[in-house]
Amino acid sequence: MFRFVKHLNFVSRSYAWISVRFHAQESTHICKRKMTTESVEKHWITRINNQMNYERKFYSPEKVVVTIPTLHFQAFDIYLSRTQIKPWNIVDLIVSARLFTQYPVKHAGNPGDSVVDTHLLMKENILFFVAMKVDINRIFHDPETPKFPLSIEAEVTHAGNSSSRRLYTVKHPSISTPYITCQCDDVLVSKSNRQPAMFPDWWKKKYSKLVKPKEIFKKPSIHDGAYTKDYNMKVEFEHLDHNSHTTTSAYLKFSINAAFQTVRDNPSGYISIEHMRAGLKSITMFFHGESNFGDTLNVKTSENCCHGNIMLVEIRNLSRDKTGNDGLCCSVVLEFYEPMESENCSKL
Prior knowledge:
eleven-stranded antiparallel beta sheet
């Protein structure tokens, strides 16, 4: 009997030891996951994402839909149209959804994931815009169409050796056609040497279906006899991103401000104030160089009859030593809708 009890105690102690070891291993595994999550959440973009009242849902590793509850009051133009969303706020909206899908978010769907594992690529690299094309449905400018809630479908559609194209589609649940589509071309750049970085082998193998030809965005050329104006503008604190570079929306704001000034200086030009009230049909931007705080930018507008309702804008950094290509930082193509009779044609 004593031997049996002694054997039973041994078995009990052995089971307890195995149980403790099992739970300890399980706890260690959970702890490691938690530590990994916490380390990821220290990234400033994730910290901001955690404060956003956005939601997201993954439909595939390449496709995420972000729900935007509302737009802020300052997003609306209260001078020209009284109702339209300011163009740079459209870009900011898309960029916010872009970042919301590229980094982990504590409260959102798949909290530790990102579209095409972007957050893993960004540990040693940065994604830089090369070009973007925004097409705006005219109904989005209509004051009667609802502006909330909005959804933005973010999808990576193409990839090369170090570049990718991401498509953003802005919709409202009650409207059958998209409000906005935005195609963004970006390049993966190494943090250490600021040179293009190749996608790692594991990424190319996992997302091999994304490697395919894509349409190249084209910029109209400036013809002889075009009406041109140029203005000097300064990069201020409000125009900077986390890399101390001028933001995408800031370049667009400089372009729109120059376009407005051109319209005021040349009321008989091809682009009129009525075009600006009618709203933008498309925005195409090409990024060539960088500018930083305190830099003076020369913003040149060009328009002629060959371009229809298009105004070309070239932005150069007058600190030539900071960028190549004759100081060219950004080229912008603004295409306006044709004014309708119902457009407000009052004077400036």
